[in-house]
Structure formats: C-alpha cells, structure tokens
Amino acid sequence: MPAISPFTAIHYPLLRQSMLIAPPYDVLSGDDKKRLLDRDGHNIVAIDLPHIPPKDAGPDAAYEAAGHTLRMWLESGVLVRDEKPALFAYQQTYTHDSGQGPVTYKRRGLFCRVRLEEFGASSSIHPHEQTFSGPKEDRLKLMRATHANLSPVFGLYHDPSNDVTDLLFEAIRGRPPIAAGELPSMDGKSAVLSEIWPVTDSQVIGDVKLLLDDKHIYIADGHHRYTTCLNYRKEISEQAGVPLSHDHPANFAMFVLVAMQDPGLIILPTHRAIAAASLQEFFLERFRAVAKDYLQIIDTKFGGDQLAKFESELPGYGPHAMGLYDPVEDATLILRPKLGKFAADPLAQFPDDAGLAAKSPAWRQLDVAILQHLIFERIVQPNFVAAGTKMQWAFPHEAHEVADLCRSGQYRAGFLLQPTPLAAVRDLCNANELMPQKSTFFYPKLATGLLINPLE
C-alpha cells in the first residue's frame, strides 16, 4: 500500500459543524449552494464551490477569491490549524431503506494522507472509472488558489477482519468527537451524522500504518480529486525546476479509507430512465416480441408504487436479473439474459464486436455492461429509437425516483439494476480495467469541510 501518514489538519472550531459542512461539490447545484450559505455564510461551499455549474472550469477570479477567503478565515479564526499531526477516526451514521424498511448504519473510516502514485500496473492505488477534462481543470485551478485538499478522496481497502478500524476506534473509545455535524440532505434522503476523533498516539499510528502496509487502495469516489493532486504535484515540481522533497505536502492527498468489509459500507445501484423524446412506439408487448431472442422475460405484480419492493426482490431472480418499468401500463418485468452456452458470459455471444471482445469476462459480466450492450444497443436502439436520435438518460439511485421520473412524462421507461458487487470493483481494478460509467454509487457521500489538508 502507499505510505499513509498523519497530517496537521485545518478545520472549523468545535460545535458549529452542522451549519458548515457540505456534500461534495459535484452533487451540488447553484440553489444548493445558496441554501447552504443562507444557513451560514462560512459554509465550506464558499471555498469549495467557487463556480457554478460544478465540474466546469470557471474564470480565474472565482478561484482567486476562494483562495483569499480561505486565508482570511484562517487569519480571523473561522478556521484553525492543528499544531500536532493526527490520523482521524471518522464515523457516518445514516438511514437507508432498501425496500424492507429503514435500517440505521454506521460507516467507519480513517482520515489520513496517502502518498501519491501514478496509476499503472505496478501501482497500489487503483481507479475504477474514467475521468474527464472539465472537472480536473476546475479542481486544479482551485488547488492552485488554495494550496489545499478541501475534500477527501474516498478509498477502499481489503480487510476481512476489520483490524484497522477496530484498532483505531478502540483508541478513541469513550472520547467525545472533536466535530459532529449532520450533513443536510439535498435529495430528500435523511441527514447523515458525521463525527471525527483525532488520534495522535504514535504507537497507534504506527500500528495502523503497519496493518495497512500490504493493502491496495481502490478509489470509490474522488477520481478527479486524485488526478488533480497528481497534476498539481507535477506542476509545482516543474515550476521549481527540481523534484519535490520526499516529504513535501504535495506528494500526498487527503483520503478517507474504509474497509470493504465494514458493516456500514453499502453500494447502491444506478438505475436508468430513458427520455420519452428518445423513444418511439415503445410498448411492452412490442418489447417482448423484439427481445425474445435475447431475454427471458417474467411478469410481476408490482406497479410504480412498489418499485422499492420490486428492486429488493431482483437478487432472488439470480445474477444479471434486471427490472423494466413502464409507466403507461404501470407494470414491471424481470429481464434476464437467456440461458444457454453464453449464460456465464452473456456478451460473449457477440464475437464480432471488437470493443466487447477486448474486454475481460469479468467486465462483460457487469450488469451495467449487459444493460448497455445487450438491451440498449441490441434491442432498444434498433427497434425504438429513430435513426439519428441520440438516447438520453437520467441516472436515479432510488427506485421511487425511477417511478417519479417515468410518471412525469419526461421519461418513457425505467430500467432497474442490482448493485455492482464490491468484489467486481476490486477484481477489475486489480486487472487495471475501468468500469463503465455510472456503475457504482457508494452511499452516503463523504462530507466536505470536516478537515482540510494544507499543501504548503
């Protein structure tokens, strides 16, 4: 595993966190930013989201203003910097209803610095999805102006016994958190309670580092933030004309590390809703007729009001079972690739598709890949989409959101997926293979504003 280390964090003083932390910048709108700043003008979005819309680079002046704000808040005491380096135990308490009733979870992790590594076959830090130029440019301009990691990269590691987490939380047993705040919901979900505890004991820090020494990190969220750190390190090294010193802060990125086996770690599916403007003559009977050579289709009793229950029963129909919701008939179908010689690898039946042939069997068995390349490209596109029309999607995470979108009239059909298994994420990362877009959703998002990692 890359070297981890404690850091001298910047953070808000105690007690005021609920009004000051925020969800990650890339899930916020201009209205979200305004609501957060209306609650408290010192909310972290004043710095972390200098330009709307998120993910697009803005004018230099916006980022310069964000850097100025950070420096002013440090000078005035709105933010403070610790004197002693620490690791931080991090716990998020949240409620999620998977269709069987609400359940409360506690996801536990570790705030730390991780030494940067370039991605590649020999790296022990692995991406699982593609990155794009717009968000990287935006984050780089912000990092230049603030000289800081304002929000963490979310990393996973394999720890079947949860030894690291147990050791860390045993060290803070009985101590109150230095920060506790409820992250406000921007999407109708319940608020998420975030708590952090510093760990400065050198023995505990040494033991944590030793336990993590042979682990790999799989980036769950924050790919653009990580690649921005790589670009920033390269840029300042080139400006200096010499390689950075071994311990230079820009050689590290702030991470939250969570064990894949943590009981509070859940991964949600990303469903698809196809825009009504994309489809023509889409009816269930016609879909059955054109899909019969590829899919086994099973009727169900669920309507739009029971989509959460319907989603929860998908695993009972086996691997690769997906759902189709039609708002016109208020009906749902189970879709499964037909059994036969391609049952273990449904996309292997298309050997003439060079793009698919180049992918590993593990990649071709991802439900999102099967949905895209079997159902959308072989069934929906040629039969229900007019020539020259580009299919438009929405990507809801909750089953009720699929129903709401489809019933609005703007979306004609919803496709529901099972969550991508964590083992598949790990295996593809280890093979240096990127997953299709919108394959994973690790809920809840990490809070921004609990800790800041200075890079100078």
Gyration radius, rounded: 23 Å
Whole-number mean pLDDT: 91
The percentage helix is 25-40%
Number of strands: 21
The major sheet is characterized as: 9 strands, mixed
Distance between the terminal alpha carbons, to the nearest Å? 24 Å
Number of helices: 14
Strand percentage lies at 15-25%
Secondary structural class: alpha+beta
**Large-scale geometry:** globular
> What are the low-pLDDT stretches, counting only 5+ consecutive residues below 50?
none
Characterization of this structure:
It is a single chain. Helices cover 31% and strands 23% of the residues. With 456 residues, the chain is α+β, with helices and mostly antiparallel strands. Strands 1, 4, 5, 6, 8, 9, 10, 11 and 12 form a nine-stranded mixed sheet that branches. α3 runs parallel beside α4 (133-146) and α5 (163-171) packs antiparallel against α6. The longest helix is centred in the middle third of the chain and has 18 residues, at 223-240. The two termini are 24 Å apart.
